[in-house]
Known about the structure:
The complex is a heterodimer of chains A (396) and B (273). Chain A has two domains: 2-216, 3-Layer(aba) Sandwich (Rossmann fold); 226-368, Distorted Sandwich (Coagulation Factor XIII, Chain A, domain 1). Chain A is α/β, with parallel strands linked by helices. Chain A has helices spanning 48-55, 88-98, 103-117, 132-145, 162-177, 214-235, 310-313; strands spanning 2-13, 22-33, 37-41, 63-69, 72-75, 150-154, 181-185, 197-202, 205-210, 242-249, 252-260, 269-271, 276-284, 293-299, 304-308, 325-332, 340-349, 355-368. In chain A, the strands form four sheets. A six-stranded mixed beta sheet of chain A has the order 5-6-7-3-8-9, sandwiched between helices. A five-stranded mixed beta sheet of chain A has the order 12-18-17-14-15. The radius of gyration of chain A is 25 Å and the shape is globular. In chain A, helix 5 (162-177) links the parallel strand 6 and strand 7 (181-185). Helix content of chain A is 23%, strand content 34%. Chain B has 273 residues and is mainly alpha-helical. Chain B has one domain (50-271). Chain B has helices at residues 15-24, 26-41, 47-69, 79-97, 103-106, 108-113, 119-146, 158-182, 186-200, 215-220, 222-235, 245-271; one strand at 5-8. In chain B, helix 4 (79-97) packs antiparallel against helix 7. Chain B is globular, with a radius of gyration of 20 Å. The interface between A and B is large, with 39 and 33 residues. Strand 4 (63-69) of chain A pairs antiparallel with strand 1 of chain B.
Amino acid sequence: MDVIQVSDISKSFSPPGEQHPFWALNNISFSLKQGDLLAIIGKNGSGKSTLLKILSEIYKPTSGKALIKGRVASVLDFGTGFHPDLTGRENIFFYGALTGFKHSELVSKFDEILDFSGLAAFIDTPLRNYSNGMFVRLAVSVILSLRYDVLILDEVIGAGDSEFRLKMSERLKSFSENGTTILIASHNMNELFNCNAVLWLEAGRMKRFGYDKNTLVEYMEETIGAYRQNLAAKESGNQVSIAKMGITYGGFKLNELWLSDKGQNPKSMFAYDEDIFLQVKATTLQPGASFPFQFGVFDSMSNLLFGTSYQLFNPDFKTKQVGDEISFTALFPKSLFNLGSYFINLYGLHDDGRFKDLGKNVAAFTIIAAEKTAFAPRGSFMPGVIRPFINWQITQ
Amino acid sequence: MPFTTKTITSEAESPLAYFEKCWNSRSLLVLMVMRELNIKYAGSQVGKWWLLIYPLVTLFIYKLISQYVFKVQSEGVPYVLFALSGIIPWMFFSSVVANSASVFPANRDLVKKSYFPRALLLIVKVVVGVLEMGITLLIYFLLMLIFQFQPTTKLLLLPLAIACNAIVAFSFSLWITVLSMRFRDIFQAVPLLVNLMLWLTPVFYPVAMIPKKFLPLAYFNPMTFVVDAYRFVLIGATFQPFNWVISLIVSILMFITGVLVFIKREDRLVENL
């Protein structure tokens, strides 16, 4: 049974005083069955939020039609309608009514909401005394304790601490298993891994729709990868991924920094089964100095994966004389990073163990699917930040 | 649970469907009213007293003016009761209308991130206004006792007068909200216009004192008819329904057109916010 049927929806905005309307959505059509979990992806401004607002009845389409069966809840922001002067309890009831629940339903669900939030001790305290984390917990608890036929989420599932995020993600999964149709717009691919359908929007048009998770991987490769490379290229001048640094720190002058293949050729897109080399060229400014630079490798959501430095590898290293140009090469093993994009921040290590920020996004790279390996063939989606090559064996 | 199918198209709903939606959201309306009252009065020391301070101070000033500057014939009723019977509906009207242009901007987050019939925001102001008026009416009855004023059976028609007052105020706020989208100047203009309208409404003087050549102006002013209706039910003043046919027609037209325009423009109001 189709729970949601979107046919040929277009939306134009014409703010007062503007001559030409702006088309935010063009001819969007798709349908979803009960229990589907749809991931809506696309760059900022691709029309994700506009589409969700139309399905939430906040905006009316300019043309086209959508049919939605059952009770819809849309969460376009955390704690919509929460008021700081009102208590947690009052806000729960207001929010529930805003989502279309009857008072009696909220009363019967109240204990569950309280239980999920873990905020029983503060429930009669005005919201302004809540910490940011408590605010989010309360908001999410209301949303995830009630039952809907259709749940619309816009960029909200990434909030809260990791324990709470896990709780949320489990709850969403059980929602869709119990027949709730869920639509999620997000930039964080790891939060979308439970989905079974993907809608990719580009400049207000449907680039792709289907029950194929691999679209997520294609999207990551194309969109985020291109973005990071542009950024890195912009910051490093003209040549891709070579940063002319000129940073002086701890007895060294950093001349160049880039990512390369085996032959030292600059490169920013690597296949999953390809080695990644970080090349660093630096001139010594004083004798007896140790290598002061540290590199932090981050994923596209700015999670730090690991840090590394030559000095950790070889603690006894000391410079010999002034004016030497030394080339350091770091090898990041192949079959380690998941498909997606990563960037590197540069830090200077103080003698007292503290770090100094020397440069953000000094290099960036994207991992794409390998042509040959069975482990990460083109388009095979796997959640997780890293994707190390794990050796499986069977005996029968 | 049975599935109800929702159809989303570019077309505005029929007024009937819209009314049904508002009716189905009544529990939200109750909470919105409680919330408004809570935020306005809870925790503030002076808050609730403003309800009394405002009419009493206004009353005091006009008492002085009427006594020393110009003589107002108050139809044989104590001037305090006469003036208050006009101040009360006027306060209600101006409390709803004066800030109606900023109702949407003040609730930007709510309307941009959730859906409910937007007219609720304006209805809330009307309901809160009625509740606040209830308190001033209680004082009014107290004053009646003090002045040993015997109300007539006409007092039973008070709910009807209040309803007329509410509909007029609601119609104005609908129109102002819709117009505020196109004309940004409305934010500044409305308080001034409300102030001007006060002097075109027989709040501090009886209709009988209006010079003949200005009478047509009074006939078109929906609030003239409302204030006269209050005078009729509260102090038994003379009321000639025939005089107010135009005023009544203007009110009804404003209400019907206001509702239609608002329903049609509701989504644009939110988009352009």
